[in-house]
Amino acid sequence: MINFYTGVWRILDLSSFYHEWTVSKLIIKPDKSPLVKYKTPVSNSIDKQIPGDAVNVSGNTQEAQNKITFAGHATVLVEMDGVTLLTDPLLRKRAAHLARLVAVPDYSAWDVDAILISHMHWDHLDFPTLRAFGYDMPLIVPKGAAKLLKKKGFKYIEEIVPDQTVQLNGVKIIATPANHSNTRVPMSKHKGDSMGFIIDGSDEIYFAGDTDLFPEMENIGTDIDVALIPVWGYGPTIGSGHLDPYRAAKALEHLTPTIAIPIHWGTYVPIGMVWMQLSFMKTPPRSFAKHASIIAPNVEVKILEPGDSFQFKHL
Predict the structure, then answer these.
(1) CA torsion through residues 277, 280, 284, 287, sign
(2) From CA 123, how far away is CA 296, in angstroms rounded?
(3) I need a labelling partner for 90 at 20 to 30 A (CA). Which of 7, 84, 184, 207 fits?
């Protein structure tokens, strides 16, 4: 049966090219809204501060519970020390050839201070979702992404490279390396680094973005409390530059977090597969937990279904 699913996937995906071409031709259309002048970074130093007039951070930073909400795919809402960050937001019922099988969360109540973009692929850098948060939303993005975002009208764009840091009301956002392709679509002129992030405050959180294993992984972070690890994608197979459940568990050997939360699974599926009973929509995080129990037994795996949250304080 899996061979049948894989065959359908090949037809729909056309060796991972068709959906990229669709996005480049049909989704990434010229933005008709007025362009807003690009705000250059406030500093060329390693440590940067997002402009104060671009953020509105409030709350008791000493008493607040830290919270992680898995919104689906690679979209995670991180609330730490009064700062709220959102990773790779893709919050639509349909994106290109993908249909969302779980509810889109009500993000209208999210008081997001900045959005983190790990790389330029269309399912991680989604313009319709970004527009929903407004052109004034601060975006922390990899080197190479600002030009396209500027063209789309976004005002606060902070390009950084691995090992550079942005500080937001006491919370450090540190770019980390990743092993993933760097073009938006095949043969695209739009290229940008692929990376992850360390979010460092009262706890240390690692968001891996999209990546495969790489040697420098063991040097990421200093004492990771929670690792947000991709374990799959949106089809019956995954290509290079990604972690499957076994390799994601191997990553824990290098990262040694206290807790690992599997992400990048169970949210989107090719439209032609919506009616099927798809094991790959449910099994990857559980396979990851099983492998992790053997490979990294000291790491606690918490599986959050899309939409679920995990509250913690000073792990």
Answers:
(1) positive
(2) 30
(3) 7
* Residue 48 within any structural domain of the chain: no
CA distance 243 to 267: 16
Domain tally, the chain: 1
Residue 39 within any structural domain of the chain:
no
If phi over 0 gives left and psi between -120 and 50 gives alpha, with beta otherwise, what is residue 194?
beta
Q: 115-119, 232-236, 238-242, 308-312: which has the minimum mean pLDDT?
A: 238-242
Locate 292 and state its tokens.
């992790």
Number of Cβ within 10 Å of residue 232's Cβ equals 26
pTM of the full predicted structure?
0.81
Q: Do the Cβ atoms of 53 and 289 come closer than 8 Å?
A: no
Phi, psi of 171 (to 5 degrees): -95, 125
Q: What is the CATH number of the domain that holds 7?
A: 3.60.15.10
pLDDT tens profile 112-166: 999 999 988 888 899 999 999 999 999 999 999 999 999 999 999 999 999 999 9
Q: Which range has the worst mean pLDDT, 4-8, 127-131, 297-301? A: 4-8
Q: Residue 18 pLDDT more than 50?
A: no
